[in-house]
Design brief:
The chain is of the alpha/beta class. 31% of the residues lie in helices and 20% in strands. The protein has 14 helices and 18 strands. α4 packs across α5 and α7 packs parallel to α9.
C-alpha cells in the first residue's frame, strides 16, 4: 500500500484529466501511429509567416485558424490536428525561411560540406523546395560536372548562370526519381508544411526501390527538443503543421529507409537533420508486382466472363443468378449483368426476397421459383459460398443443366470442380507469408458447354 501511495504522489497531475478530453484518434504524420494526446491549445489565430497584410485593417480582418496541437504517444511528434493545407497561400506567398544572419550562413556552409561529402565526383542532386537556389548553386559550383535540379513551384530560382536547372513545379517521386535517378535528394524546411510527410518519404523510398536507384535523402526541419525545457510556445504557429523532435524524425526515417546514416541537431539545437539511404526492397516490389498482376488479371477476367455469358445468352439459355445482395450484387455490377439481359435473380433468404439488386434493379425472387420454372444454367455469384449453395440447391430439388461459378477469371462447372470449394481447404494459421499456406493449385475443369455453343466458347478460351 505504501509503494502504491508513493507512486500515486509522483504521478503527473495530468493523469487526473479526463481521458476522453486528453486522447484523440489522429494519425501521426511522422510515424503513422493513431493515438495522440492534447499538447497545446493555442486558440484561433491568424497566419503569421505567409499572410503579409498591407494595412492595419487588413491585419485585423485576417482569417483565424484553429491551433489544436497534439502529441503522438509513440514517437513524440507534435502536430496540428486541425490544419488544412488550403488555408495557407503557398501559391501567392513563397515561404522565406530564417534570414541572412552570420550564424545561419555558417550553418548552411556546414550543411553544404556534409552533403558534398556524400556525393560521387559526377553526382545528380535534387533539392525540393529550393527557394532561391542558394545552397544548390553553391554545391553545383563545387561539383561542376554534376547535374543539379531545383524544384520549387513558388520561388524565383536563381540558376547561377546555368549551374543548376530550375523547375517551377512540385517534385513527384513517382515521376522524377525515374527520370533523374538522383544520388541525393535534399529537403530543407519543407516537411513541416506537408499534410503527410511520412507518406512523402515513403513515396521516395518506394520509387527508389522500384527504379533501383541508390538514393540518399537529406531532411532538415525545425526541432522542438528545446521547447520542453524552455516551455516555449511561439514555435507552434499554423503554417507548420508538423513539429519534429529528434526522435520523431528518427522514427519516420527508420520506417522508410534501408539505413538511417545520421541524425543530428544544429543551429543551437533549433534544427534536426537526418540522412537516410534507400535501396532495393524486394518485399515491397513483390507486393506491387502482385497488385499489378491482379489488376491486369481482373480486367482480363471481366472480359472473359462477359463473353462466356453472352455466348450462353446467344444460345437461348435461361440463366438464373443465385444471390442479389452483398458480394453477389458486387458480382452483378462488376460484370454489368443488367436487368434486361439477366432478369432472373433468386435467393433463399426470405428477408432479401422482394428487394432489388443495388445498382441494377432486378427484383430478387425466392429460390423455389426454380423448382417450378427450371433454369438451364444457375450462376452462383458468391464464390466463397459455392459449396453451401450447391448443397441447398440439391436439397431443394432444383434442377439445372449447369451450375457455374467464377474461378480465376472464367466460369467453371461446379460439379466437376467441387473440391476447389471445400470450405476446409486452407484452414491453417497464417504466418508472415500467406503464400506458405495457400492450398495446392490445380487447373479447374471447365464447364461442359452446350453443343450449340462449343465453337463460340472455344473462340474465347
Amino acid at each position: 500500500m505504501t509503494n502504491q501511495s508513493n507512486m500515486s504522489d509522483k504521478s503527473p497531475t495530468t493523469n487526473n484529466a479526463s481521458l476522453s478530453e486528453l486522447m484523440h484518434e489522429s494519425t501521426c504524420p511522422a510515424c503513422g501511429h493513431h493515438v495522440a494526446v492534447t499538447f497545446y491549445r493555442g486558440g484561433s489565430l491568424p497566419l503569421t509567416t505567409q499572410a503579409w497584410p498591407q494595412s492595419a485593417q487588413e491585419a485585423h480582418e485576417m482569417p483565424r485558424h484553429p491551433h489544436e496541437f497534439v502529441r503522438c504517444i509513440d514517437c513524440g511528434h507534435v502536430f496540428n490536428r486541425e490544419f488544412r493545407y488550403e488555408n495557407v497561400p503557398y501559391q501567392t506567398k513563397p515561404n522565406l525561411m530564417y534570414n541572412r544572419g552570420k550564424t545561419w550562413e555558417a550553418h548552411i556552409e556546414r550543411v553544404k560540406q556534409l552533403l558534398l561529402d556524400q556525393l560521387p565526383e559526377v553526382p545528380t542532386v535534387v533539392e525540393i523546395g529550393c527557394g532561391d537556389g542558394t545552397l544548390l548553386c553553391s554545391m553545383a559550383a563545387a561539383r561542376p560536372q554534376g547535374r543539379f535540379y531545383g524544384f520549387d513551384p513558388n520561388a524565383q530560382i536563381e540558376t547561377g548562370g546555368g549551374l543548376i536547372e530550375a523547375r517551377a513545379t512540385l517534385f513527384e517521386p513517382s515521376k522524377h526519381i525515374a527520370e533523374l535517378k538522383p544520388d541525393l535528394i535534399i529537403s530543407r524546411h519543407v516537411l513541416e508544411h506537408l499534410m503527410n510527410p511520412l507518406g512523402f518519404v515513403q513515396q521516395v523510398a518506394f520509387a527508389s526501390s522500384w527504379e533501383d536507384a541508390q538514393t540518399k535523402l537529406y531532411i532538415e526541419v525545425p526541432c522542438i527538443d528545446r521547447v520542453f525545457e524552455l516551455n516555449r510556445t511561439i514555435d507552434f504557429y499554423y503554417e507548420h503543421r508538423s513539429h519534429f523532435t529528434s526522435n520523431s524524425l528518427t522514427k519516420m526515417l527508420e520506417r522508410c529507409s534501408s539505413e538511417v546514416e545520421m541524425i543530428a541537431t544544429g543551429y543551437n539545437n533549433e534544427v534536426v537533420m537526418g540522412l537516410a539511404s534507400f535501396g532495393k526492397e524486394t518485399e515491397s516490389i513483390e507486393v506491387a508486382q502482385e497488385a499489378i498482376q491482379f489488376s491486369h488479371g481482373a480486367m482480363e477476367a471481366k472480359n472473359r466472363v462477359r463473353t462466356q455469358l453472352k455466348n450462353l445468352q446467344a444460345a437461348g439459355k435461361r440463366i438464373a443468378i443465385w444471390g442479389g445482395t452483398g458480394k453477389a450484387a458486387s458480382f452483378i455490377n462488376q460484370f454489368d449483368l443488367d436487368e434486361k439481359s439477366f432478369p432472373l435473380i433468386v435467393d433463399s433468404d426470405a428477408a432479401k426476397v422482394g428487394t432489388h439488386v443495388p445498382g441494377m434493379g432486378q427484383k430478387i425472387l425466392y429460390r423455389d421459383l426454380l423448382v417450378r420454372q427450371p433454369a438451364d444454367v444457375i450462376l452462383i455469384a458468391t464464390q466463397w459460398r459455392a459449396r453451401d449453395i450447391a448443397m441447398e440447391i440439391e436439397s431443394a430439388g432444383i434442377q439445372a443443366d449447369s451450375l457455374l461459378v467464377e474461378w480465376r477469371g472464367e466460369l467453371i462447372d461446379y460439379h466437376l470442380n467441387a473440391d476447389l470449394f471445400d470450405t476446409n481447404r486452407g484452414e491453417t494459421l497464417a504466418s508472415k507469408s500467406n503464400k506458405d499456406h495457400r492450398p495446392p493449385e490445380r487447373a479447374p475443369h471447365l464447364f461442359q458447354p452446350f453443343p450449340e455453343t462449343v465453337q463460340q466458347i472455344e473462340d474465347i478460351t
